What does this fold into?
Amino acid sequence: MSKQLSNIASEATERTNTTGVMTPILELQPDDGLMWVIKNAVERGQQAQGIPIYADLKDGSGNDLPADTRMAIQFESPNDDDAQTVSEPKTNIRAYRTLSIQDQQNEEYIDQVKHILKGSQLRVDDVDKMYISVDSSVQVDWSQGTRVTIAESAVKEV
It folds into this structure.
């Protein structure tokens, strides 16, 4: 069954990043007894490869995060000392600054918000954690309307 993951999902915990280093802004963990399989090939747009992540990232003043903010998917299992980056980090978030979430979902622009996994898929068990992380000079402020959603077509819950 497909599963939409976002900052308002019951499995999500919103976090505040530490400036200047890659740190989580959104923690996602499956409910007990469940697992997510995150596919690295969403068949929308020109490129088959990648996971669309739709986002509106705001700082404490309600401004967009800087364009040079880096963004990545990270993963942590109980045996890991630190979260591992499992996607190719986006080196800037210009698409998130210039496109509305509705435009990000548009066939014409979706490739700009796809994150490419380093492997063919990511399996997240109920004891694991998946993160959407950023490296930015400012902190994300969830009270300013920040939103993050992973495309439902990329996530299978089993």
